[in-house]
Design a protein that fits this description.
The chain has helices at 2-53, 61-70, 106-109, 112-124, 131-148, 157-168, 182-190, 246-251; strands at 89-90, 173-178, 195-200, 216-224, 228-232, 240-245, 267-272. The chain is an alpha+beta fold and 273 residues long. It has 2 domains: 1-44; 89-272, Alpha-Beta Complex (Cathepsin B, Chain A). Strands 1, 2, 3, 4, 5, 6 and 7 form a 7-stranded antiparallel β-sheet that branches. Mean pLDDT is 81; it is low at 33-80.
Length: 273
């Protein structure tokens, strides 16, 4: 009896071991099948990643804005130099100095604004005057200045325009250009418009001035060439077609300033019909 039980027990243990071994083999086969099934997915994922990595990288909003900005219409640039201007030009403006009778007294030393406006105006009105007639006109202008500006010795560009408008009575027009360029001046002259320029007179280097020269000065630009402005410099009897380098005129252009002429703004007066 005991021997039969022992045999049954051995058979049970063997059956249990066989069953366990069978289940282990089966589980191993299932795991291998799963591994084989998963590998293509992983491979596909790698391929997708590779494809994605070949696409352009996303940019941040700032970069997108920058890219958009480069596609906007370009900002308008300043016009190029006026190639239609003649290379040189000269208006035939008659010359009268601010002391037409060669009397360089206190009155005539202060007449550069008046004489410059008269030179320009006579050209536009196609008039000529004898020297004594020009002197009479200077005296007339002084009275207009006293009545309309309250000052005659040193008048600003704006004050000069004011009394000149009264003097010409509408027969001529006058405009002020602020911060003019060389091309602005040349354009006006080439259009037949004399240009009256205020200057720091002691800095322009005219050797014909009685030293030290005028603190404040005006003259007429009536022509130009590649390097120079051609002027009627009324501050000297030798001022007919007097030549200044362009940079001398532009650098020393200053409206009247009682504190310091060098603080004066850059302006010009343009006379035209």
């Amino acid at each position: 009896m005991k021997k039969a039980l022992k045999i049954i027990l051995i058979i049970a243990i063997a059956s249990f071991v066989a069953l366990a071994f069978f289940r282990w083999k089966n589980d191993k086969r299932i795991l291998q099948n799963k591994s084989t099934t998963l590998n293509p997915i992983a491979s596909s994922q790698i391929s997708i990643n590779n494809i994605v990595s070949n696409q352009p990288a996303p940019t941040d909003p700032a970069e997108n804005n920058a890219a958009t900005a480069t596609q906007d219409p370009p900002v308008a640039q300043a016009p190029a130099s006026n190639s239609n201007l003649p290379a040189k030009f000269l208006l035939q403006i008659p010359f009268y100095s601010q002391a037409p009778l060669s009397k360089w007294d206190t009155f005539h030393e202060e007449m550069c604004e008046e004489a410059s406006i008269l030179n320009a105006g006579l050209y536009l009105e196609n008039k000529t005057l004898a020297k004594d007639q020009f002197e009479t006109e200077l005296q007339k202008i002084q009275k207009i200045e006293k009545d309309n500006v309250g000052e005659w010795k040193s008048t600003t560009v704006a004050q000069t325009k004011k009394w000149a408008d009264v003097y010409f009575g509408g027969s001529l027009s006058i405009k002020i250009i602020d911060n003019p360029t060389v091309e602005d001046i040349e354009t006006e002259v080439a259009a037949g418009h004399p240009v009256v320029v205020p200057l720091a007179g002691r800095d322009i280097g005219n050797p014909n001035f009685t030293p030290p020269g005028p603190v404040y000065h005006m003259l007429v630009v009536k022509g130009y060439d590649a390097q120079n402005f051609i002027t009627n410099d009324v501050g000297t009897r030798k001022g007919n077609s007097y030549v200044y380098k362009k940079d001398v005129i532009m650098k020393n252009m200053h409206d009247w300033n009682a504190q310091d002429i060098h603080f004066g703004a850059k302006k010009i007066l343009v006379l035209y019909k």
